[in-house]
Amino acid sequence: MIPELSNPSVCMRDPQRVEEILQSMVKAGSNTVQVIADFDMTLTRFAFKGKRCPTCHNILDNSNLISNECREELKVLLDTYYPIEIDSARSIAEKLPLMVEWWTKAHKILVQQKIRKDLLATAVRDSDAMLREGYQLLFDHLQEHSIPLLIFSAGIGDILEEVIRQAGVFHSNVKVFSNYMDFDESGLLKAFKGELIHIYNKREGALLNTGHFQELRTRPNVLLLGDSLGDLTMADGVQDMENILKIGFLNDKVEERKKSYLDSYDIVLVQDETLEVPNAIMLHLTGNK
């Protein structure tokens, strides 16, 4: 067993099953593996020194690219819809239309701000966004071993890419599915492109991008990283899946959500701001003990 799986932040409902999946994946070889990850609060930190870290949307909310009035409107939306998102008493079917409503309203408000494309990098640089500790090893090692990393995010793709670019880890093996901004010829935000990706329709997003998964059909072994129950469907586009090891970051509301996370994820990391466990698993899978 990997020593890091004894870390105090690690909870597993069935350690034996985790061991079996890992053995099976090691046997198949790292050239059959792909990593599918959420971004906000999965690859990025939830908090640092007691202070919440921003998501892709928050980076914009906190920047000077939007007016105070816009910021207030977005805050009202957050206070209205975030409690619904994390309410374990509501079913996903119940939450779904409300999440679409939230994202759609937020995007509409942002479009009215005529955000300048050339200022996004500065907004990211000035923000408190941070990738989790150990990110360099994760991204670099996956690149070194030519293991694809698919990032699936309900956030804003342009900002997400900028975060990993500024961290120096936007390697060629990284592919991002997210909500992208559409700018007019003078570089002002005029709309968001394509279908809306929100927290509970990542499965549809995965299936819409079957071309991508088609290319990866020689990689039927998946390491999935997420922080919400909506992230569990991110691998539904993978064809002829052999093994999937699901690692879930349980960042807050631990007591009320722990049971549902343990029922859904193979490994649950409780208030762990590092990538130590995913890194240990990745090193194990690539034979770097």
Automatic annotation (TrEMBL):
The keyword Transferase does not apply. It is found in: Cytoplasm. GO terms for cellular component: cytoplasm. One of its GO terms (molecular function) is magnesium ion binding. Keywords: Cytoplasm, Hydrolase, Magnesium, Metal-binding, Nucleotide metabolism, Nucleotide-binding. It comes from the Eukaryota. It catalyses: CMP + H2O = cytidine + phosphate; N(7)-methyl-GMP + H2O = N(7)-methylguanosine + phosphate; a ribonucleoside 5'-phosphate + H2O = a ribonucleoside + phosphate. InterPro entries: HAD-like_sf, HAD_sf, Pyrimidine_nucleotidase_eu. Its EC number is 3.1.3.5. It holds the Pfam family UMPH-1. One of its GO terms (biological process) is nucleotide metabolic process. Specifically hydrolyzes 7-methylguanosine monophosphate (m(7)GMP) to 7-methylguanosine and inorganic phosphate. The specific activity for m(7)GMP may protect cells against undesired salvage of m(7)GMP and its incorporation into nucleic acids. Also has weak activity for CMP. UMP and purine nucleotides are poor substrates. Monomer. Belongs to the pyrimidine 5'-nucleotidase family. This is 5'-nucleotidase. It comes from Notothenia coriiceps (black rockcod). The lineage of its organism: Eukaryota, Metazoa, Chordata, Craniata, Vertebrata.
